[in-house]
Specification:
alpha+beta; 5-stranded antiparallel β-sheet; 3-stranded antiparallel β-sheet
């Protein structure tokens, strides 16, 4: 029997007979350290062709596929880890941190979303990106003790250490964030698609004179 009751929250669909895929990301291969980890812990390797990463109309769907190094294309030795992360549930649902129940006047709700972590260097005031990855950023401001400390690295050009920084997180990169798998080949395009689908404000790719925020569908109409 076909479903007639309404879907609650983000499980609601635009059309009851299909789930719209807003963005089908090209999956990036894992790094050398992670490849070594898969190899040493189970004789596995990352199957990039089988893995996928979708931004859907109401959620993210991810699949991290692994295959056996010794058994080739034998399906019996392949494993897949499929996850669906709805926009109105963890890890994207705003929540009050535990400290709020103890000291409610100095805490604020979290505002989790996707962001891009960048590592690189500053040489003669030139910003050079060495690597970047999509991460889950739990909040813009640290919720304790007073919601006034930014969760982003900031290096002014007047700072001599920043101007000649050899390696590390670049300005704008989240200080505290959780890892995300699999990784898209174009992290900024993926985060932008996520922001539009989830109706969340996300950071644009740095490099402009100003760094405006990409606003979701609802805010763009205002």
């Amino acid at each position: 029997m076909s479903r007639t009751t309404a879907h609650p929250g983000s499980t609601k669909l635009k059309s009851n007979d299909k789930i719209e895929i807003v963005y089908d990301a090209e999956v990036k291969d894992v790094g050398c350290v992670q490849k070594l980890g898969y190899c040493c812990c189970g004789c596995k390797s990352f199957d990039r062709e089988r893995s996928y990463l979708y931004v859907r109309e109401n959620s993210l769907e991810t699949n991290v596929a692994l295959k056996c190094i010794c058994c080739g294309d034998n399906n019996a030795w392949k494993t897949e880890n499929v996850q669906v992360l709805y926009f109105d549930k963890a890890p994207f649902k705003p929540a009050a941190p535990k400290c709020c129940f103890v000291i409610p006047l100095v805490c604020c709700k979290t505002a989790p979303k996707l962001d891009v972590s960048e590592c690189g260097c500053w040489i003669c005031c030139q910003r050079i990106v060495i690597c970047e990855a999509v991460v889950i950023m739990p909040f813009e401001q640290f919720p304790f003790p007073c919601c006034c400390c930014s969760n982003r690295n900031s290096h002014g050009l007047c700072n001599l250490w920043a101007c000649f920084k050899l390696n590390g997180p670049l300005d704008g990169t989240p200080k505290k964030a959780d890892s995300f798998m699999p990784q898209p080949r174009d992290p900024w395009e993926f985060v932008k698609a996520f922001g539009e689908a989830a109706n969340m404000s996300v950071r644009e790719k740095p490099g402009q004179d100003t760094m405006p925020m990409t606003v979701g569908k609802a805010s763009a109409k205002e």
